[in-house]
Design goal:
Elements (H helix, E strand, L loop, with lengths): L2 H28 L4 H27 L1 H4 L2 H18 L1
Helix pairs in contact: 1-2
């Protein structure tokens, strides 16, 4: 699976989760606000949370899934060579 597709899936998971959480917390209060202001409110919360918290967390959590296997094998071989040199 291509890395860009995997990042897209993680982004969707993060956005879906955050929108669900925001609507669960503030949904009743947002119903009375006109759509452009409601969208403004959602994006003011969603974008910083996604950029600063959720995506770094998801990328760290799914790092091995995001990296192509060849890159992982090269990193593993490189780490093993460092261990051998240090002993």
């Amino acid at each position: 699976m291509k890395t860009i597709f995997k990042i897209t899936v993680l982004t969707w998971v993060g956005i879906y989760s955050l929108i669900t959480l925001i609507l669960w917390l503030f949904g009743e209060n947002l119903g009375d606000i006109i759509l452009p202001l409601r969208t403004l409110f959602l994006t003011l919360i969603l974008v910083p949370l996604m950029t600063l918290l959720v995506m770094p967390f998801l990328r760290k959590m799914f790092n091995s899934w995001l990296q192509p296997q060849t890159k992982l094998l090269k990193n593993k071989a490189s780490n093993q060579q460092k261990i051998v040199k240090n002993t």
